[in-house]
Design brief:
Layout (H helix, E strand, L loop, with lengths): L2 H11 L2 E2 H13 L6 H13 L3 E7 L6 E6 L1 H12 L11 H11 L4 H24 L3 H26 L1 H8 L1
Antiparallel strand pairs: 1-3, 2-3
Helix pairs in contact: 1-4, 2-3, 5-6, 6-7
């Protein structure tokens, strides 16, 4: 996720001050990608510097003054351009697990043990996600479904890797 563009989109959706915008971010994305207040104010300052947002007022209260922000046309343009980009990355991924399998094969370590441990961890993660999904808000259900499908894909990859172990060992010998 491009945190800064998602945050800029929130400024367009609900103009407000940093605290409100962080709450909105946390409501929609915070569980997956926490954002510190310092990051919020740094992004808002950068957006203002780049003429993507503008400060439209200051709200005084019992605490520090709160600067109100709204998006500018260039900011909206940037968000719309981002929304139109696709995320269909078809590049061959060399994950940490992939590297572990290759190194274990090269060192003649027990690859099956490594794959079984990873499968067990993924099945546990799947159970946790499924439980969390049961009472979640609809937007969170969508995020849990995405995570569950990614976990399922990793488990399928482990199954395929395990089925190919004999040939892989011969190839790397």
């Amino acid at each position: 996720m491009d945190t800064s563009l998602a945050f800029l989109g929130l400024v367009e959706a609900r103009p407000g001050h940093g605290y409100e915008l962080k709450q909105l971010y946390d409501e929609h994305f915070g569980g997956a990608r926490p954002l510190a207040y310092g990051q919020v104010y740094a992004m808002l300052a950068r957006f203002a510097r780049d003429d993507l947002v503008e400060m439209v007022g200051v709200e005084d209260g019992s605490g520090p003054s709160r600067k109100q922000y709204r998006i500018l046309p260039d900011g909206r343009k940037r968000v719309i351009e981002w929304l139109k980009t696709t995320d269909a990355d078809a590049s061959v991924s060399r994950t940490n697990l992939f590297a572990k399998v290759v190194i274990a094969l090269l060192l003649d370590e027990d690859v099956t043990r490594i794959l079984n441990a990873q499968r067990s961890a993924l099945l546990n993660a799947m159970r946790q996600l499924t439980r969390a999904k049961q009472n979640a808000a609809l937007l969170d259900v969508l995020a849990y479904d995405h995570a569950l499908l990614r976990v399922e894909a990793d488990i399928r990859w482990i199954d395929m890797a395990e089925a190919r172990l004999t040939n892989l060992k011969e190839t790397l010998a």
